[in-house]
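Both lines are quoted verbatim for reference:

——
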Amino acid sequence: MVSKACLIVALLALVVAAECNLVDDLGVGLTHFDDNTCITGHCVSTDEEFLLDSFSSEATRRHLAQKRYISYNALKANSVPCSRRGHSYYDCRPQRANPYRRGCSVITHCYRFTN
C-alpha cells in the first residue's frame, strides 16, 4: 500500500516537472531554471513575474483606496502612519486617556448632602 502511494506521488512529481521544463532555444533539450519560475504549473520569466507583481500590487492599492477606513496618506510609499511610539495607527492624535466624564449625582454616590 505504501509503495503504491509513493509511486503515485513520484508520477505526480514527474508530471509537474515535465509541465514546467523549458526547452533550450537551440532545441537541444537542455533545461534551465536560472531566470524562470514555475508557479502552479505555469512557467513565467522573472521579467514577466515582476510585471505581474507590480500590476497586482497596484490593483491591491486601488482596492484598499476604495475602503473607508484607510486614508490616502497610509497608502503612500515609505511613510509611517503614526510616528508616536506606542499609539494606535487609527488614533494617532494626542488626547486624554479617558475623555468620558460623568457628572456627580446621587446615583454615582459622589453627591454631597449640604443640608
The longest strand covers residues 36-39. Residues 18 and 78 are 42 Å apart (CA to CA).
